[in-house]
Amino acid sequence: MHGKTYDALVVGTGPAGAAVALRLAKAGKKVGIIERGPRVSRPGTILGMLGAIDLIGMIPGLTTPSAVRGIALGGSTLLYCGTAVPPPKWLKTKYNLDLEAYSDETIEELELKPLPDEKLGAAGKRIMNAANELGYHWEPFRKFIRPQYAKKGFCTGGSCMMGCSCGAKWTAAEYVDEAVRNGAELHLKSKVDRVLIQDGIAVGVVARTAAGDQDFWGKLVILSAGGIGTPGILLRSGINSAGKKFFTDPVVMVYGMSKEPGSKYDPPMSVGTFEHYDERIVLSNLTDPNILFPLMLAAGRPTKPWLALQTGKAMGIMVKVGDEMNGTIFKNERFRKPMMKTEKDRLKKGTEISKKILVKAGADPNSLAVTPIRLTHPGGTARIGEVVNENLETEVKNLFCCDASVIPETLDLPVVLSVICFGKRLADHLLQTKRI
After folding, report:
1. 34 sits in which H/E element
2. Structural domain for 415, as ranges
């Protein structure tokens, strides 16, 4: 038994949990942060990240594509492409969730802006220019990437999505480390199994640690274990409304071979377009990490199989689409997420546009290939209005959820900036209402 009682226990160190923990710690509150995974000591490589990825989730099922999830300090910000998109306006108009001030604050605080022209990447600029010549509207994206911190340009071969060895990409671990400097206590390699509930009030959690099961006590419990982890904990704690209507953003990669250096030498998602957002389609330049590229391209069945070995010549466009809220998370954090015709039709349309752009950018039309579907940005599994109220509190008093699981509708956008805003908003609510 862990004898200390914290003002707040924060479960998970992704962007939302890290944001709420930092804000509470800065306010002088006694914060305990519990993280299932380790601190990654060698980011930027597949081997260095093996202990930080949900490997079981990467195995596709019969009806469910694979999903990528970070389970280490910083959560999935270790794996994301670092694209910063403000919260959608419908959160305010439909749900009275005004996050604009928090978004502006974070953009200024972390200096979120597009990369300078000379840092966009040669292939990325070719793709962007080709798209615009075809009449589309591509532009540089605002990034959680600080080019001045890069040691030698940028991580190449997709290694930025494997933790970023050069330190240019912001991760939520930075917020957590700052929270610790402000007095918070961090417990790594501690997987929370369930919430301790007494007379309808959350009083702590049970976590599996290297020393066995331990109880951690808190006046408040904030679950920020992500769109898959949070509903798993809720279900194991007896809150059976969680885990339903699971949504995610299905993704495919469209590749084409060029005579010039490909996308592996570019920062991830440095350019792209939201012009098809009304159709729930987002396009951007991207390539798979080196070790995954041959497997993914081979699975895309190129007309010339040996092209799967030509990583350096591949130009890639990511097609990401909105999906239907038809998935289910189970107690063991496995999930079922069949792909619907509407989602496949969106992916098909995005793929057709991408192929035109790649050929215009110099790709060999006979080299085009499309990878299998993957799932990103899981959410909606502890939704506002169904599992939590507008202040993110569950039916159990003093038990809150704060991550992508609370988003009430499919976001169809990069999620990190939005959930940071949710974390800051929750911390302010707890402090202003003197709940802590």
Report:
1. strand 31-34
2. 5-432
